[in-house]
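<purpose> Linking amino acid order to shape
<body> The protein record starts here
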Amino acid sequence: RLTEGDCLGGLDVAARSGDVDLATNILQRLQRHGYALREQHLEALVEALVRRGQWARAFVALATMRRGGMGRGAAPLRVVTRTVVAAEDSEAEADAAFDALVAAPAEAADACVLDALVAGLALGGHVEAAEERLSTWYERLRVERTEASYVAVLRGCTHRRNKTVAERVLAQLLDDEALAAPREAYEQMVLVALLQPNYEDAFVYLEAMKAHSMLPSWRTYAALARRCARVRDPRAHVAVREMRTLGYVVTPAL
């Protein structure tokens, strides 16, 4: 008798290889053998469709999952971002995915899906395009931006060392009266500032975090300490001292 474990193994292969036919056949076999389709089964189909570039079918499948109370996890969204990043032309791939999303059932389009596409654009090197889509895409689909929407672009700015766009995106977030800039937004600003020849603004954003009663993470302090140590800036010792005060582990490398 075919076991669910056998099918899960096959679905994993289908998802990673973008084999839509294999994923579909396995789902049909599961149903024929009396198994109820669960979220992890259908996520494999969505991933296979995304990897194959069949965005319209992927978003329809995602909408079907959501009608059944599924599809809210991070797995399908991560593969959306990774697929856009890995595309030969990330901007064209993201635009094609968005066009498919416009035509998909309304429940498939929410801030999380748009965030995943915008993140793919930004991490794929198109931070200016991501900044522009942050306005046009959400408005066209009448989807409210969230803090995570802005952070998705800020991560890409850090990845591409683009402080200019990061500053504009943070300004938009701060101007949005419905939202409050989260800790990660400020941390991304610290990190992107540290990647510049003049990294003084990193300390401005660090102090802004503290002023908003936000606790900088170990990663933020470690990045500050390493950047300062590289140019023998004595503030490296200050960063390490604050880490110890907060109970963070100070590794020998620091």
About this structure: Residues 4-17 form the longest helix (14 residues). Residues 1-52 form one domain. The chain has three domains: 1-52, 54-181, 184-254.
